[in-house]
Amino acid sequence: MYDILKEMMKNQKQLFNLNEDIHYLNCAYKAPLLKSSENAGIKALIRDRNPADITPSDFFNETEDVRVLFGKIVNCLPSEVAIIPSASYGFSSALNNITCTRGQHAIVVDNDFPSDYFSIKRWCDTNMADLKIIKANNSLELNGEIWNNDIIDSINEKTALVLLSSIHWMNGLKFDLENIGEKCRSVGAKFIVDGTQSVGVLPMDVKKFNIDALICPTYKWLFGPYSLGLAYFGSYFHHGKPIEESWLNRTNALDFNNVSNYDPKYKPYAGRYNVGETPNFILMPMLKQALIQVNKWLDNDIQSYSKELIKPLISYLQDLGVKFENSAYFSNHLFGLKLPEEVNAKLLKENLIKNNIYLSVRGKSIRVSIHVFNTSEDIEKLIKVIELTKKSRS
Fold it and tell me: Which of residues 260, 282, 297 is at a domain's end?
């Protein structure tokens, strides 16, 4: 794990092929590709020209390396890691193994990502369970503490499961995973976490947080390719039923001469939940290189780097009256903010495009998401464009 800092993080832009004219402040949308992953992908494509170069061991070695690397990031055994194609696949695999009794309910937070909501909504409809949506108090400028307390207070003996993102995907607000997980454990509720916007950049410990299943697409903060994901499945799921029957998930899959003997036994623990065609000879080498780099970054302190980088932006916006959550609920790598009245959102979006600044504009709010490839120049440019837009309306 990465609790002890080894050294202060330095800018890592040299590890990417980013366009020098672009100010990319949108890692929460999609991460840029690492040079090491790009090279691994090219090498894999070349190898794919000649299938004779792909040996039986190639079906398993790289995926096992990926499980080890992800296990280090979230504090679990490699055997508890499954390779999935998407978050929705991971949710379906977990929810397919959870039942409830009459009168129980599930909990989700308001405005969580659509895949999260629709997955748990289907589960509730199938199991005739109520779905409780815990809403934020939008009349408050800062509601992190109150919202978290409301979530914890809503969990009781009638709660079958809680599904929520580790941080809110729209504004970066942190959810108190440790206390929510403890409350779930105390009442026997299953705890499923969408780690999309935090795993790889914020500390994650599935054991400490009593998480039963953690679902993570790789193309954001894990810097992997699109169409791959990783999932932790805890002890509750070790003997569950997968949603597909891949031959690669059987205990005799390593013996190509024996696969038609139809071994009924699944691989131990999370191995049963792997998506079919797990090896993915092109994308898997790219993901492996990305996870190697993420583990190196996590030996330092990404949050401190991000915090230092955004100081001028936070100070500037506070002077304009923008409020920010305190550190317990604020994510330095991803945060949303409501624009001051004097900043026209439509005009700001136009000015951002003109100045090659990429971030997410949603209505009257913007979402800034940064990583170690960002520089002070990126932040200074954003401040200048906001100030330009403000003056244009004056």
Answer: 297
Average pLDDT over every residue of 331-337: 94
My answer on whether 269 and 364 are in the same domain is no
Gap between the Cα atoms of 36 and 50, Å rounded: 22
Give the chain's length.
394
Residues 103-140: pLDDT tens digits? 999 999 999 999 999 999 999 999 999 999 999 987 67
pTM listed for this prediction: 0.93
- Per DSSP, helices labelled H in the chain are 35-47, 61-74, 87-95, 114-127, 144-154, 177-187, 283-297, 302-319, 345-354, 376-393
* pLDDT band, very low/low/confident/very high, at 57 (cuts 50, 70, 90): confident
Tell me the two tokens of residue 150.
Answer: 């409301």
Residue closest to 99 by CA, chosen among 118, 122, 127? 127
CATH (domain of 22): 3.90.1150.10
Residues 6+ apart with CB under 8 A from 79: 67, 267, 268, 269, 270, 271
Tell me which residue has tokens 């899959």. Answer: 253
Backbone angles phi, psi at 133, to 5 degrees: -105, 115
Let me know whether 212 and 156 are in one domain: yes
pLDDT cut 70: percent of the chain above it: 97
Same domain, 310 and 212: no
CATH code assigned at 114: 3.40.640.10
DSSP symbols for 316-374: HHHHTT-----TTT--TTEEEEEPPTTS-HHHHHHHHHHTTEE-EEETTEEEEE--TT-
Asked if 286 and 360 sit in the same domain, the reply is no
Please check whether residue 48 lies inside any domain of the structure. Answer: yes
